[in-house]
């Protein structure tokens, strides 16, 4: 019965935590996204936001994974995200205080069991209060789980830590490793902390042993975050690396300063006449705050180092863009033009790969789509200056045309499966014309003279003429029953696909190297 009760207690606690986390995310998620940038403007504000999110969700892992999604969506910069990750350490300490103050000092289960019934009633009443109802259910289940764990630990404890001397480095490492293992297996340092506090309350472990266990559990969250972000973008990998380094450093600092830190905690607790659970909560908070104070003053240097260690392809493509340039339109527009040249060359290489090897890499196409969006946002910040309006307006207009054609080019690559275009020997000429355009794109740079745009124009015109002639020829063959209708449709679609591709390659390049002359119908507003 004891083992079953233990497993059930873990399950009840987990269910309560999941309900709390999911409900709080749904209640605060949209508002959080809207205010995110404003709230994370400085390092202290970012760390406070990270701590608050973790305190609300009762999981630093959830905070970190949400932060990764915010960076991927462009809602936070990497440096801002790093301050949230650092601050999340402090927020994770709230679990220990909740358990130490409420979980064992009073029979909270009797007080909170009715909450489960009230919460479910609210859940069934209507849409407006159902989230509040689930919040109450989650809160009730968390403490029911804690109480169940406490009972189970008294029944099932057969393993003794009495032989593990916390003054021996080997035993210290064993305790740290056990704590880390608990977090990885349970997928939550909060659950590991609750189990450790339960063990401490039932005299299964000493206070010093519990302190080493929670140190290891804190480091274990890095592995949980790494598993939760597998397959993510480079920005996600950077945040995970930052998370690993922060938590590993906290573990190392906590271990090396353990005699001093543990001694200070005990002196403060003696003065306050605190029990062992409160002492453990204080120790847990102390080493997390120590980690925050260690990293937060140097977060910018730490961020730069991580950016260097894990370079992003998207940042390489838009490396010329600097928000401060927007006050100098001519410089800003040239930076945007150079970025679009890099993006077009990158897209050209992906297109060649598709035409020659029939390989379409969606991740790379998503990268192009994201960087085009970044350039578009950058262009929207540029303010025209009096006396330079017409030339800059023409350049700005050309770059918008370029983005439009690059996005259409991207759409063409995603639109259909070009198997016929790649394998049908009837279209070798058309394919070679497109590849010729792409070879020219590969040699494109910011010094390419405007008159060179004729090379792309010539290839595109030849492609259009080829398409017209062969389309008419295929329709005639179909009418004469020399080709099946289905076969004709596939061939015509493939030919049109190649023609559209060649057209957008030409137009994107033309606007990129030969600025558009503004229409006389529009006057440039120089006052905005």
Q: Which regions have little confidence, pLDDT < 50, spanning 5+ residues?
A: 520-528
Radius of gyration: 31 Å
Class from secondary-structure proportions: mainly alpha
What summary fits the major beta sheet?
A: none
Q: State the helical fraction.
A: over 70%
Output mean pLDDT.
77
How far apart the termini lie comes to 75 Å
How would you describe the overall organization of this protein?
This protein has 528 residues and is mostly helical. It has 2 domains: 2-309, no CATH class; 315-513, Methane Monooxygenase Hydroxylase, Chain G, domain 1, CATH 1.20.58. Helix content is 78%, strand content 0%. It has 22 helices and no strands. The chain has helices at 2-39, 43-57, 60-72, 78-91, 94-103, 108-125, 130-156, 169-186, 189-201, 207-228, 234-256, 258-272, 276-295, 299-309, 313-317, 329-357, 362-380, 389-415, 419-423, 428-442, 453-479, 485-513. α2 crosses α3 (60-72) and α3 packs antiparallel against α11 (234-256). The chain is elongated. The model is unreliable at 520-528 (pLDDT under 50).
Brief summary of the model shown:
The chain contains 22 helices and no strands.
Q: Keywords, please?
A:
Methane Monooxygenase Hydroxylase, Chain G, domain 1, 2 domains, elongated, 528 residues, single chain, 78% helix, 22 helices, mainly alpha
Break the fold down into its secondary structure elements and pairings:
Blueprint: H1 2-39, H2 43-57, H3 60-72, H4 78-91, H5 94-103, H6 108-125, H7 130-156, H8 169-186, H9 189-201, H10 207-228, H11 234-256, H12 258-272, H13 276-295, H14 299-309, H15 313-317, H16 329-357, H17 362-380, H18 389-415, H19 419-423, H20 428-442, H21 453-479, H22 485-513
Helix pairs in contact: 1-2, 1-7, 2-3, 2-4, 3-4, 3-10, 3-11, 4-11, 4-13, 4-14, 5-9, 5-13, 6-7, 7-9, 8-9, 8-10, 9-10, 10-11, 10-13, 11-13, 12-13, 16-17, 16-18, 16-20, 16-22, 17-18, 18-22, 20-21, 20-22, 21-22
């Amino acid at each position: 019965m004891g083992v079953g009760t233990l497993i059930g207690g873990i399950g009840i606690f987990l269910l309560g935590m999941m309900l709390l986390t999911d409900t709080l995310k749904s209640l605060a998620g949209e508002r959080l996204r809207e205010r995110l940038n404003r709230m994370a403007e400085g390092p202290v504000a970012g760390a406070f936001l990270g701590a608050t999110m973790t305190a609300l969700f009762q999981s630093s892992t959830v905070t970190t994974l949400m932060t990764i999604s915010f960076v991927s969506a462009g809602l936070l910069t990497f440096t801002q995200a790093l301050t949230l990750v650092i601050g999340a350490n402090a927020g994770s300490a709230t679990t220990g205080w909740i358990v130490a103050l409420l979980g064992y000092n009073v029979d909270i289960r009797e007080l909170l069991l009715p909450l489960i019934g009230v919460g479910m009633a609210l859940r069934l009443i209507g849409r407006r209060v159902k989230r509040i109802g689930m919040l109450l259910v989650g809160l009730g289940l968390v403490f029911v789980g804690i109480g169940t764990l406490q009972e189970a630990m008294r029944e099932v404890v057969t393993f003794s830590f009495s032989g593990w001397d916390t003054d021996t480095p080997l035993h210290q490492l064993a305790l740290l490793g056990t704590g880390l293992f608990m977090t990885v297996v349970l997928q939550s340092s909060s659950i590991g902390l609750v189990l450790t506090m339960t063990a401490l309350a039932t005299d299964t472990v000493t206070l010093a042993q519990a302190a080493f266990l929670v140190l290891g559990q804190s480091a274990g969250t890095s592995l949980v975050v790494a598993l939760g972000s597998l397959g993510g973008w480079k920005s996600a990998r950077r945040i995970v690396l930052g998370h690993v380094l922060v938590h590993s450093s906290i573990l190392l600092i906590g271990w090396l300063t353990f005699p001093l830190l543990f001694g200070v905690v005990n002196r403060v607790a003696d003065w306050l006449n605190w029990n062992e659970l409160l002492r453990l909560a204080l120790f847990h908070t102390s080493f997390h705050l120590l980690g925050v104070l260690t990293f937060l003053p140097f977060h910018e240097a730490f961020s730069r180092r991580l950016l260097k260690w894990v370079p992003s392809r998207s940042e390489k493509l838009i490396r010329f863009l600097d928000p401060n340039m927007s006050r100098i339109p001519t410089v800003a527009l040239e930076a945007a033009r150079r970025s679009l040249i890099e993006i077009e060359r990158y897209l050209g290489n992906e297109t060649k790969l598709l035409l020659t090897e029939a390989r379409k890499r969606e991740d790379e196409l998503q990268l192009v789509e994201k960087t085009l969006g970044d350039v578009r946002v950058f262009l929207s910040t540029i303010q025209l200056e009096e006396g330079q309006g017409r030339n800059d307006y023409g350049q700005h207009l050309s770059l918008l045309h370029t983005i439009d054609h690059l996005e259409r080019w991207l759409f063409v690559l995603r639109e259909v499966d070009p198997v016929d275009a790649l394998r049908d020997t009837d279209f070798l000429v058309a394919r070679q014309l497109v590849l010729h355009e792409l070879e020219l794109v590969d040699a494109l740079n910011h010094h390419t003279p405007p008159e060179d745009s004729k090379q792309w124009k010539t290839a595109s015109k030849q492609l259009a003429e080829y398409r017209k002639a062969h389309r008419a020829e295929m329709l005639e063959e179909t009418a004469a029953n020399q080709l099946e209708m289905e076969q004709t449709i596939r061939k015509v679609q493939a030919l049109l696909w190649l023609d559209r591709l060649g057209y957008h390659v030409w137009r994107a390049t033309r606007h990129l190297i030969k600025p558009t002359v503004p229409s006389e119908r529009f006057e440039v507003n120089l006052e905005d």
